Amino acid sequence: MSSRSSADDLYRKVARKILVESLSVKKGESVTVETWNNGLPFARQVVLEARKMGAIPLTIFEDEDTYVEGVHKTPKDVLGKMGKQEYKLLSGTDAYVFIPGPVLGNFSHRLARGEQLDSTAYGESWYKAASKARLRGVRMAFGYLGEETQAILGKSVEVVATHQLKAALADYKSIRKTAKKLSSELADGSRGTVKTPGSKLTFQLAGKIEVEDGIVDEGDVGSENNICYIPPGYVYSEIDPESVSGSFTFSPTITRFGLIKDGTLEFRDGQLVAWRSKSSSAALGKITAAAAEKSRRATALLVGLNPLLGYGYGLNANSAGVVGIRVLGVNFTTNRASLSVAGATLVAHGHL
């Protein structure tokens, strides 16, 4: 089998899976597929599979070069605004498949940070309109991969994208079952402990829990969690920032300043008071310097659930057995942690 036909076969399998399992697309429903240049081969398969199911697909194409040039030339008071035609499109869509472009990712150098933020200021409006329309949507994470991938992850775009797409073929029902069991252990007010080699962090859970299991059902639509990332999955639980104390040693973690290969974060009375890294001190320093004071408190615990997603492929927080702490606007993760809550062990040395 040729490389092209092998890729098309993978695209077809993933396209079918997200349409059937993630979005529950039915005959006669409208399916909108939004893609950039890099996602066109996958988008074609989504359209073909949608047509086979009797759905009615429509493709929207965003050209990367035109987008970048447009950002530079658009009047500031219009940049990042949604047009009425897009609101109308969302209101008439049942299922939405979004394949983003690399320019929207954290590492693209084609737009300055401010330009990127300004040009995507429509984000909140888009999500509100999508929620109001009660559409079911997925966002394909591989679309964010660009030319910087090799330097950051040490792997080519093709290798990382292929891995993510294969991880999209995980058993979503099994992930949901694990997430449900795990969520039941994360009760509001429970005390938790994360231990990694050389560190121990304690905290108290604060109640709100989110699950990313790859399935968008009526419950998700009703709670305005109607867009999920593919590949899934994780459980996210808020923690009381004031309760966080101790240290957290993390594994290689991706940030907008690049890969931080190692490091330890220290907390006292909820406040991040010290940080160190043997091999990425400059990048970690940039993260802390750029962070607002309020973001120097840990706000969430994440536990990865996807058994097909390896660590180091751009979505560490979704990899099964990974534990993460959100602070400084970053999900600092490790695949070497043990997590216990209310005396029960939920993760043991990186294994669920």
Helix coverage percent of residues?
25-40%
Please give the domain count.
Answer: 2
Anisotropy-based shape: globular
Mean pLDDT: 94
Spell out the helices and strands N to C. Answer: HEHEHHEHHEHHHEEHEEEEEEEHEEEEE
Stretches where pLDDT is under 50 for at least 5 consecutive residues are none
Reported by name, the CATH topology of the largest domain is Thermophilic metalloprotease-like
Model description:
The model has no long low-confidence stretch (mean pLDDT 94). This protein is globular. It is built from 11 helices and 18 strands. The strands form 3 sheets. Strands 5, 6, 8, 9, 12, 13, 14, 15, 16, 17 and 18 form an 11-stranded antiparallel sheet that branches. The protein has helices spanning 3-22, 40-52, 64-73, 84-91, 113-119, 123-133, 149-153, 157-167, 172-185, 218-222, 281-290; strands at 30-36, 56-62, 95-99, 136-140, 191-196, 199-212, 227-230, 234-239, 245-250, 253-255, 258-260, 263-268, 271-276, 300-304, 323-327, 330-334, 338-341, 344-347. It is α+β, with helices and mostly antiparallel strands and 352 residues long. Helix 1 (3-22) packs across helix 2. The chain has 2 domains: 3-169, Thermophilic metalloprotease (M29) (Thermophilic metalloprotease-like); 173-212 and 232-347, no CATH class.
Salient structural properties:
single chain, 2 domains, eleven-stranded antiparallel sheet, 11 helices, 29% strand, globular
